Amino acid sequence: MLTLYNSLSKKKEVFKPLHPGKAGLYTCGMTVYDFAHIGHGRRYVGDDILRRTLARFGYEVTHVQNVTDVGHLSSDSDEGDDKMEKGAQKAGKNVWEVAEYYTKHFYDSMDLLNILRPHVVCRATDHITEQIDLIAKIVDKGYGYETPEAVYFDVSKFPNYDKLFGQKLADKRIAVREEVETGSHKRHAADFVLWFKRVGRFAGHVMYWASPWGDGFPGWHIECSAMSMRYIGDTIDIHTGGIDHLSVHHPNEIAQSEAATGKQFVRYWVHHAFLIVDGKKMSKSLGNIYTVEDVKKKGFDSLALRYFYLTAHYRKPLNFTWEALSAAQRALGQLRSCISGAGRTTLSREKLENVDNFRRKFDTALEDDLNTPNALAVVWEVVKSSIPPADKRDLILDFDDVLGLGVGQQPREHKTKVTRDIQDLLAKRVQLRKENKFEEADSIRKAIEDKGFVVEDSPKGTTVSAGAQHRLRS
Ligand code: AMP
Ligand code: ZN
User: In this structure, are residues 66 and 125 in contact, taking their beta carbons and an 8 Å threshold?
Assistant: First the structure.
């Protein structure tokens, strides 16, 4: 039985969907004002594993993902400027062009990571009517109120708002204090915007629509409630997001949705931990924000990045280093070699049992809150096992329906040849190792790997390869 850790109950729970055999999955998408990076890659590979696991266990999945192209301000608590309008100023383009450009970039990056496209991709700006209707319902039911600048959700009307996901209302008061100082007319510091009016600091806002409360644009949170209701229904089986959404975005989604419908909004909340780089938070100032193309430009297969993500459980932080990515690329290459060229065999009864055992172990790992490190460990048990090559191949390909590493395909990209400078570095490294200068040899290995090649030492010598194909023995 599939169990998922539900961030709301803070327990692993057996997954039981609202409608037997079906699973409605909603994933908060990206705010498309900048490039998607490898942190986003980790986040959405995590969702992809969830979706593929649900399919493996026989559920008919409806996967919906929003694209935030309006209303998300610099801070999640309605502070600062609209990220889209700021992004447009920075790029010297209009907001619509910026949204289109970065949405394309986002999905191109996700394709490189073999992430299945959601069944429904919905843009906030294409669903303004749904958002206005939902806000009107909330206001009618007495949970919303209008001020000269916005329509707010009144959190004091929603029972236990301050307890959702264990957030502390007192902390949120501090977090939004600046807004109180800017003269907001809102009643409580944690009240959040449902509709921004095109007045005051937003008088020149480029994206705006007519509404019962005047021209303006929706707040960020309302889009997810409105679009999930439209495409999945009032109750979603699984809603995913990053851990950054635990404090503001998701409590707000719950409050406004349940206020409007009087029904449970989400049955299982799944939250993904962050990717850090070289032990630090990714940031422009540290220059450690990499895109999937950056990884490719260094000669790595983008699916090695996917493999790397799977080495950690989705609820644990993961530290990206180029060395770790090289190790992932090596592992992926070995998996591909293991299954290439295996012929067909007939299984004896004993081998059949072995195969079933491996399959059971793999499923058990997934059932345990999507434990991908354990699932990968089963893959390697299969590789090292004594079952015939053809059956190894079949099993690994079966597992790959969930892992999505494309092991049955050729690498998507690789350097076409080991270049002269790599050959020179390799020769130098071999010499240093002969002289027992291992530290210097290691730094040369790193230099080679930074150029996108994989170095492997074995009793027969050293090989350097790009992907699984191009090998040079020294
Ligand atoms: P954004 O629209 O950029 O705020 O991010 C879209 C999603 O990506 C959010 O759910 C974030 O939680 C997630 N995200 C952003 N940065 C990272 C990161 N470094 N690691 C994992 N997830 C991230
Ligand atoms: Zn959302």
Answer: no
**CA 127 – CA 31 distance, rounded (Å):** 15
Residue 181 pLDDT exceeds 80: no
What residue spans define the domains of the chain?
17-272, 276-403, 420-473
| pLDDT at site 285 | 83
Our answer on whether the CB atom of 282 is closer than 6 Å to any ligand 1 atom is: yes
Indicate if ligand 1 lies below 6 Å from the C-beta of 242.
Answer: yes
Average pLDDT, the chain: 88
**What's the mean pLDDT in 216-236?**
97
What single letter denotes the amino acid at residue 4? Answer: L
pTM listed for this prediction: 0.84
392 lines ligand 1 (CB under 6 A): no
347 vs 416 pLDDT, higher one: 347
Q: What is the CATH number that goes with domain 17-272?
A: 3.40.50.620
Instruction: Read off φ and ψ for residue 123, nearest 5 degrees.
Output: -85, 140
CATH of 276-403, picked from 1.20.120.640, 3.65.10.10, 1.20.1250.20, 1.10.10.10, is 1.20.120.640
